[in-house]
Amino acid sequence: MTPERFQQVGHIFQDAVExxxxxxxxxxxxxxxxxxxxxxxxRSLLANAAEAAGRIVGALQEAAQTFPPGDVYGEVGLMVxxxxxxxxxxxxxxxxVYQAIRSDGEFFQTVAVKLVxxxxxxxxxLQRFRTERQILANLTHPNITVLLDGGTSSEGRPYLVMExxxxxxxxxxxxxxxxxxxQRIELFRQICSAVHFxxxxxxxxxxxxxxxxxxxxxxxPKLLDFGIAKLLMEELLPDGAAVTETHFRxxxxxxxxxxxxxxxxxxxxxxxxxxxxxxxxxxxxxRPFALAGRAPSEIExxxxxxxxxxxxxxxxxxxxxxxxxxxxxxxxxxxxxxxxERRYRSAMELSEDLARxxxxxxxxxxxxxxxxxxxxxLRRRRSTVAIAALLIxxxxxxxxxxxxxxxxxxxxxxLCDRARELTRMDARIRRQQVGIPPNLRQAVSLYEKATRLxxxxxxxxxxxxxxxxxxxxxxxxxxxxxxxQGLKAAQECIRLDPGNAKAWExxxxxxxxxxxxxxxxxxxxxxxxxxxxxxxxxxxxxxWLGYTGRxxxxxxxxxxxxxxxxxxxxxxxxxxxxRSRAILLSHQGMLLLRSGRYQEAIESNRQALEIEATYxxxxxxxxxxxxxxxxFTGAEKEFRLALAVAxxxxxxxxALGHLLARLPQRRSEALEIEKxxxxxxxxxxxxxCHAAIVxxxxxxxxxxxxxxxxxxxxxxxxxxSILVDQRMEPLRxxxxxxALVDRVRPFRR
Amino acid sequence: xxxxxxxxxxxQPQTITALLKRHDQGDEQALGELLPLVYSxxxxxxxxxxxxASSGQTLQPTALVHxxxxxxxxxxxxxxxxxxxxLALAARVMRQILVDHARxxxxxxxxGGKAFATLNEAIVYPAERAPALLALDLALDAxxxxxxxxxxxxxxxxxxxxxxxxxxxxxxxGTATVTRDLxxxxxxxxxxxxxxxxxxxx
Lengths: 749, 202
Known about the structure:
The complex is a heterodimer. By secondary structure, chain A is an alpha+beta fold. Helices cover 60% and strands 7% of the residues of chain A. Chain A folds into 5 domains: 3-65, no CATH class; 78-163, 2-Layer Sandwich (Phosphorylase Kinase, domain 1), CATH 3.30.200.20; 168-366, Transferase(Phosphotransferase), domain 1, CATH 1.10.510; 411-646, Alpha Horseshoe (Serine Threonine Protein Phosphatase 5, Tetratricopeptide repeat), CATH 1.25.40; 648-748. In chain A, a hairpin with a 4-residue loop joins β3 (95-103) and β4 (108-116). Chain B is mainly alpha-helical. Chain B has 9 helices and no strands. In chain B, α1 (15-24) packs across α2, α2 packs across α3 and α5 crosses α8 (175-194). Mean pLDDT of chain B is 69; it is low at 1-14, 50-58 and 108-129. Chains A and B meet through α1, α2, α7, α18 and α20 of A and α1, α2, α4, α5 and α6 of B.
């Protein structure tokens, strides 16, 4: 059909509708004038008119109803609470796990977010979820992934936020590094210590398997999903409906104990059984029972009554078989006994027995007999592993440290939760605020209370330090009342958890604020060693490198971050997570600008804008580069673009003022901007150094120096950029300016 | 909090509202910048459909578009024309989101004969049905080749929930025309969707 023909059909159809049923036949005959095809077309439209809208709506309805809460690409780029989902890591029946960054505009931290598929997020379910996750937050152990946060998304779906582990799955790690039996056992013992730690706190894992253990590049095993199986199962299954079947559906039968397979209550002993299976697989590379593809009833029979071949029979290599025969066979067998009460009484006991094996001492898992002891004694005498044994003994001696930490008080956790809620602020409110907002003061005192209740609870110190830094930013001239407390809190975090990149960032930030730049740089460098993408550390440290003339080194770090798989992870420009990449590109542009590489600076910012067209900081930096190249018209356009989105952003405002001051016919506009900036300063914003930029543009050298000196008196954050800011050139010969440079020079120690 | 020595990383203000405002004031360029933001806002909100559906209510995509407008406009005043233009844009975005989803659903692999799903492996999808939305999308494309204006009207009405006046405002025609054109377009689409082969077309 042609468009013309379609129009013709349309007119006749519409007239036919309007002329009503009675006159319709006559009308059609006349209007179609013997064109049978035309008439048939109109008639078929008329016949469908009544049901048409219903069909269209039906299609939409269906699409809406089948819209899954977690389809694969869909959630990447979404915000869950303050977390931005950047990449899907895994997906399960109960939820999907994403790599995410916390990005409420202030902090970036890479985390794993488990978003639960739940249809019925009732109040009581959410309440239980909340209580449970508070208990889980107690599990602070080096081999357990930390539960950082949790809550409910705006769509009402519960989520859990866990430490993000960059690493390999346990079995892959062992294979790739060709770990010996001894090394595997040592790794496994760390897992045992984590499980024991949790059991002491009445938390059962319920789904222990190699797939839930990651190994970090440093070789530290990390247990994932502790206690989460229970949380999620209860969530999905009110009233324990069809327990057995569901257990099968939700957990891996290969590692399930007989009591789990039967749907009986799960205890600590069930975890010991799963540990036994895990050990079996670590030692032999295979699982005790071949369950793949079997029916549930067959699985139940195999797990509950079957006898697994001992590990030494499950391997082909005779040398390996010999190594496994005896003690390791027995240890595995004891962990995997059918009767829960006949297994090791704790994960610790299992771990200790393995230690005995490693040291060549008699293991408990075997009936004691004189000949057995004697053979052990002989072997021990012969062995050349005395040094290794010593090392192991000292490692074992260090073990109790892990268990010494008392459980976190629930009250401390709940105080932190409340404080966190208080600190979530709209960016716009934040900008307009003058003075420290009352909710932040309240959050600070809640965090303080939490640290008093439990001085070893790291999240409370982090929250305290973070909130203080945040609060100070509102009211810089009067920051001293809080500043030392912020730094102390951050240092306390590091004392408790030296591997915490965020804590190092906080310390660096506090030093930066005190203008102790060398100490700040050291802290930021540590943060970057722990997390190459720690965003504030990356930007601050590279900025500092730029100030000390090491731009190439700075650019190298930024380029490395840009090629990091995470920074690349989202090529889809339609999701907001491109933002972190845009920020990095723009920062690269700033570094290039300051080393005089203007064209490259413009290019880098253009790339940032391609990813995120609304990232106006990139316009500002591009404008500075254009100005430096003498393209005043282009520069003005960029500054105004930046201001269009953020009229109160004083950086592009100062840039525009400076630019206009250089154009004789537009100096009055520049003066106007300078006034505006000073006015903002009087209202509590720390922008004296920005006003100084405009004065420098007007060639009012003494006036500009006055402002800069006052800015130094307030220790304004952006002031050190005068070290590299080309717009300060006219001031450079002045002794007063040199004195300022000395104050902000980053080499001070 | 200020961490960098420079403070040029301060967060941006509510970009969406600012862009909406500019668009409302006739800045065409703002539209292009608004699109990805609207996409991610709507996409995020679409996740809520599932929840509503399972609790027995059905949240229409059109309701979602209006809710998105309320959220994104953040309580600021907009002209009737500005709002209508935004809704028209959101309608197009909503269509795209639903079509993307329907496509991925159509091509999703059926779970192979795995007896047991583990915590980390299983993906639970709602029961499979033929995505009727793809048929609707194809039919709308065909319609726009015959009469683009009518296709846009359908899009605005069904995906965006625009009123007759709003559609009239966006297209610069009278409301009577909208009523007439919509009736014809609906009948035509309804017939296309009613054809037996429409359901199997993907």
